[in-house]
Amino acid sequence: MPEFRYTARDQSGQQTSGTVTAANRREAAAILSGRSVFPLEVEDASPAPPERQVRRVPAALLAVTYSQLADLLHSGVPLLRSLEVVGRQTSHPGLKSILEAIHRGVEDGSSLSEAMARFQNVLGEMTVSMVRAGGEGGFLEEALARVAQFTETQDDLKKRTMGAVAYPAFLAVVGTIVVIVLVVFFVPKFASLFAQLREKGELPLVTEWLLAISDALRRWGLVLLAALVGATWWTRRWMRTDAGRWWLDRLRLRLPMAGPIFLGLAVARFCRVLGTLLHNGVPILRSLEISRDATGNRVLAAAIATATENISAGQSLAGPLAASGHFPPVVVEMIAVAEHANNLENVLLSVADTLERRTWRRLDLTVRLIEPIMLLILAGVILVLVIALLLPVLKMSTTV
Question: What is the pTM of this model?
Answer without folding.
Answer: 0.65
